[in-house]
Amino acid sequence: MGQLIEDVRDSLQRLDGAAVLDILIIATIIFALLMALRGTRAMTLLRGAVAVVLLVFLLGRILELSVVNFLVRNSLPGLVLGLIVIFQPEIRRALERAGRTSMRRWLSSSEQYAAVEGIAEAVTELSHQRHGAIIVLERSTGLEDYIESGVRLDASLSAKLIEGIFYPNSPLHDKALIVRDERIVAASCTLPLATGAGAERLGMRHRAALGVSEETDAVAVVVSEQTGAVSIASEGRLIPVRDETRVRSALEALISKRNGLRPLPAQAS
What angle do CA 21, 27, 32 make, to 5 degrees? Predict the structure, then answer.
């Protein structure tokens, strides 16, 4: 124990401007990683791994276990590599978010606002008829991987076309429709399913909407087939839009990053 205290004292005495900058950079990286893992199953795994490593480290230092201390010192590169492999999806998501630029969003904002009008009209009618639907608005992150999984349409966006696509038993009603600017790019697209805490209580449409909002910066609108309830997925959260007349303003607020609505409770698709 005395050796541990002595090591800490020596480290504090060697602190200078460069060391403080080093600490700040590492702390920022760790904070960004924790934010990327927030609300995912990986966070539970990370907590367990950190608890085990700290326990082994403290036991080795306090009891002066030379073999354990040797293993802890020399296994650090392997632990870092293991964390990169285990948390690869979350790290990729964090890097993708860091690499997004706002230029494309600024350039296409007028087209997106125009698309919101048709989407809001279609969603209102789909909600009244209780026709299940999921509509994804592409933003900065390209959705080409998901577009390729569906049927390309490249059609002008209109409320009637959206309503027709999601009419029950129509060939393209199952899965998602993707919108880019003012055009419907593809329909019947497969989206990733959310796997975070509470996702298993959601229906498939809501899990898919939540999943694509976790993987990208897209905004997804979901209409429940069972209840007709409308919800919007953005940045890994489901947002309730209980009054259909608020669909337009809610989408415009999300596109403008004025996101202040409450998370949606679990419901059926």
Answer: 130
The predicted structure's pLDDT at residue 20: 77
Confidence of residue 77 (pLDDT cuts 50, 70, 90): confident
pLDDT in tens, 12-21: 666 677 777 8
Helix axes 88-99, 76-86, angle to 10 degrees: 70
Backbone angles phi, psi at 174, to 5 degrees: -85, 135
Q: What angle do CA 53, 57, 60 make, to 5 degrees?
A: 140
Segments of the chain assigned E as strands = 133-137, 151-156, 176-180, 183-189, 219-223, 230-234, 237-240
**Count H helices, E strands: the chain?**
12, 7
pLDDT score of 257 more than 70 = no
> With a threshold of 0.90, does the pTM exceed it?
no
Phi, psi at residue 185, to the nearest 5°? Answer: -80, -45
- Going from N- to C-terminal start, the domains of the chain cover 2-99, 103-255
pLDDT (tens digit, 9 = 90+) per residue, 41-74?
Answer: 566 677 777 788 888 888 887 887 888 778 777 8
Give every CB contact of residue 239 below 8 A, 6+ residues apart in sequence: 231, 232, 233, 250, 254, 259, 261, 262, 263, 264
Q: What is the CATH number of domain 103-255?
A: 3.40.1700.10
Q: Please report, as a single letter, which amino acid is at residue 7.
A: D
